[in-house]
Amino acid sequence: MNKVLIINASVRNEKSHSRKLTQLFEENWKKKNPNDNFTHREVGLEEIPPINEKWIASAFIKPSERTKENQSGVKISNELVKEFKEHNIYVLGTPMYNWSIPSGLKCYIDQLMRINETWKFHSGVPDGDYVGLLENKKMFILSSRGDTGYGENEKNEHMNFQTTYLKFVFGIMGIKDISIISLDNEEFGGEIFENSKKEIYQKIEQI
Predict the structure, then answer these.
(1) Residue 181 phi, psi dihedral angles, 5° rounding
(2) Which end of the chain is less congested by CB atoms within 10 angstroms, N or C?
(3) CA distance 193 to 69
(4) Nearest Cα to 9, choosing from 20, 23, 1, 19?
(5) Which of 51, 111, 38 is nearest to 81 (CA)?
(6) CB burial class (10 A; 0-12, 13-18, 19+) of residue 198?
(7) Rounded-to-integer distance, Cα 9 and Cα 143, Å
(8) pLDDT in tens, 74-89
(9) What is the pLDDT of residues 55-75, one digit of tens each?
């Protein structure tokens, strides 16, 4: 039995296309895997606090030296990390904002990116050799974008700081099995966008 974590990052609700993608994914997955458990984490419509000086002071304390008092700055982070670790499949729905990711998603990632929790240095001290601590995990990134051509070897690849960043940063945590499905062409609307939706919906239904 899998434990699936659905993460939604859009600041839009009913009009969000990335939310429609995660909804379709969940409906399709449940039909094929009725015994799997689902959890939802909202990072778009609910505020995830950004890290601050108190967070930094707590996060870099060695595990052997941690106390309730000196860990107060990462209380929310600990809850999010615990939830993240407990799941083995992640479904991340996110739009592209200004060629990157929503600020709420960035805050969420910052809360997850914890030394000696989701990653570590290979030697135990800063050595530039990052080791991910999350093993046997699978992630689906379901993105929505106004324009097109952001894929590998496409005209706007150099402007894609969305899925490329997400694949990199979650890879640092140890998640190497990452599938990316992107719904493009929203700003064009009409037949162009409808054809894009049809194609992407079919890809999700085939998972």
Answers:
(1) -125, 120
(2) N
(3) 52
(4) 19
(5) 111
(6) exposed
(7) 10
(8) 999 999 999 999 999 9
(9) 999 998 888 899 988 999 999
